[in-house]
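Hi again,

Forgot to attach this to my earlier email, sorry! This is the prediction with pyridoxal-5'-phosphate bound. I've pasted everything inline since the attachment limit keeps bouncing my files.
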Amino acid sequence: MTKVNTNYLKLSSNYLFVDIARKVEAFKQEHPDRKIIRLGIGDVTQPLVKTVIAALHDAVNEMGDPATFRGYGPEQGYAFLREAICAHDYAGLPISPDDIFVSDGAKSDLGNFQELFSEDSVVAVTDPVYPVYVDSNVMAGRAGDLFDVTWSRICYLPCTKENNFVPELPSVRPDLIYLCYPNNPTGTVLSKDELRVWVDYAVREGCIILYDSAYEAYIQEEGVAHSIYEIEGADEVAVEFRSFSKTAGFTGLRCAYTVVPEKLTVSDGRGGKVGLRNLWNRRQSTKYNGCPYIVQRAACAVYTEAGQREIAETIAIYHENARKLSEAVKGMGLSVFGGVNAPYIWVGVPDGQTSWDFFNHLLTDAALVCTPGVGFGKSGEGYVRLTAFGSPKDTEEAIERLRQL
Ligand code: PLP
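Structure tokens for the complex follow:
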């Protein structure tokens, strides 16, 4: 009989959001009249901006005209978009349009990129963590065995209020280091100096940093790097993942990009070096046929003057939600982190309660859904994540319910 990839059998069947959905469904059955407000899942609520919609319509019309119809596009993305990304997001940095690979999402790129590395590579992740980094390495057989909520071969870098959510360098050298800033789930950031420590470490130790900056557009404060390539030497050790999902409301439309600088090399296992950009290009050309033309036109419209103004207005709505939510939670006497340079608010639960206790409390007593921090890793115990992606009206109502708790 055909045998399965047994690594898949190791994956936890209790996927966090499935557990949450089950509890919410049970609550709904018991209280059919109560309106539930979701401060849990990280999807946006504001529609695509006008300039993006216009670009979509234009591109659809092009597809209906034999003179402008497009079939398969370049697997790496159209030059018009790669050039716009480079000019806007990487001006003055050592990145060229050839280093940019457009795709249908950062989730797939983050999940796929690990394929380029040896099966015995040691992986480090911050804890708590966006689950895709760990699960994709479990599927590839790199994670070892699961004990409670930790994998035996994964190197966890705890981020808690005790270390101000700044991970310490690992005691044993990993091959791959996943960093996500602004962070999901904690909403915290690293200063440029704190990020430099990681780039210098990777240069010194010969590691690769997989830098997820899906929430870059939410950075408001000075001194926080918008790209890891602002740090000298990063183009020799880091891959950067960005997405239009949270920047411009593309969670349903799907467009993202991954930056693989030409200088980035790894060992070929025979005493030589091999460039990651060529390998990623080879991988994408073989397994991917490109993001849709109309979507790439829509993404390109984000970089116009009007597009930039409009997405800034949408992001300002989420920032304002985050600010008000943070204030309300502080008013409950709880500790609050993040929420300034990110759409996520990381809340310390009251003493003596677990993440799930507090989740149950908010659901039962206020019909509010949050995400229990322990679902993101062991160091997430004692916290819950709230998101600012709700509509302003729902967020106001959620705040009112929190006040009355
Ligand atoms: N990276 C992080 C940290 C995320 O939170 C998310 C989505 O929630 C993604 C990547 C996925 O982005 P995309 O919608 O481009 O697949």
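The radius of gyration is 21 Å. DSSP finds 13 helices and 17 strands in the chain.

That should be everything now.

G.
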